[in-house]
Amino acid sequence: MTMYDDRGQAEENHMARAEEMAFRVTARRNRLLGQWAAIQMGLTPEETDAYAKAVVQADFEEAGDEDVVRKLFGDLTAAGVNTDDAAVRRALAEKAIEARRQLMQSE
């Protein structure tokens, strides 16, 4: 019975690590997205840092990426940046790859 308990515990540990990594990738992606959008809007370095944190926080509004896409698109449009939904989603995909790469390199 111990072998099955150990295997179950190992599987739980693996799933917990995978969930933590997914959370970290998403948070890093959102920070990178915030920095990207801040550059588009011409924000100062201090404003960029604050905006990137706000984008990370925006992701907690609802499940999925729609809350982040909505925030970025709305803020970019309000700032007079000529963009569209597809450009924001493209940046989201690119920053997800970059975030995963950065986290894998840091481990």
TrEMBL record:
Q: Which InterPro entries match?
A: ATPase_inh_sub_z, ATPase_inh_sub_z_sf
Q: Name one Pfam family in it.
A: ATPaseInh_sub_z
Instruction: Please report the name of this protein according to its UniProt entry.
Output: DUF1476 domain-containing protein
**Lineage, highest ranks first:** Bacteria, Pseudomonadati, Pseudomonadota, Alphaproteobacteria, Sphingomonadales
